[in-house]
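Residues and backbone
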Amino acid sequence: MPVSTYLVVALGAVAAGFVQGLSGFAFGLTALSIWAWVIDPQLAAVLAVSGAFTGQVIAAVSVRRGFEPGRLAPFILGGLAGIPLGVLLLPRLDADWFKMLLGLLLVVWCPTMLLARNLPRITAGGRLADAAVGLGGGMMGGLGGFTGVLPTLWCTLRRYERDVQRSVIQNFNLAMLSVTLATYLAAGLVTRATLPMLAVILPAMLVPTLLGTRIYLGIGEVAFRRLVLGLLTVSGLALVSASAPRLLQRAGRPISTAFVGEHPVDSAGR
């Protein structure tokens, strides 16, 4: 590969590492918005999962405030059950409509939450509801790699304190990424051709991830809530942009497709 490709990949890792260190999620979303134009989607998926997993490990070591195993457990148990369900549903589900409807929900609901100061806090459901959200997050991971979207939105609706929300999202994603990475290794997707790119990504993201975690420690509750809702809105836009070209093609309209229309969003993502 040309040197310019490695430079673009390194730039994506720097940006994604910083965003993940700051928010606790969204490595794949950020990286793929840059990598999509220069590398193969399968390679991008492997790199995104590997980078996101590494970033979550770094962030988990750097930011350990708010960790409550009892609160986290229902999310992870539900998520572990949801991943195989998502994989089983994938051949039977219309993935394009799924991404479109989820993306529209995020694009409408998250800015509404951002602008409305006095929306009611959801307190019903307890751990069973948390497990159901984890199940949904795991299923979405099996369907398209969006493990963190539902738990992040749910924690925001629960109005968890900043550190508690960060801990739930961060450790949930870490567990789901561990399963995904193990699946990739077992399937032989991490090949020798992947190693040079990994040798670029992992060092490039180290300092930005640590910088993001340091900035996170200095921001307040309101700023963190705005950051999370903003990133969820961007996630929604990414889902809509990935599914809209395919849906238009199926409707018979001649359009020019970009990468996000030609290839499915990777299985990493945040």
Remarks:
- The two ends are 27 Å apart (CA to CA).
- The chain has one domain: 3-262.
- Residues 3-262 form one domain.
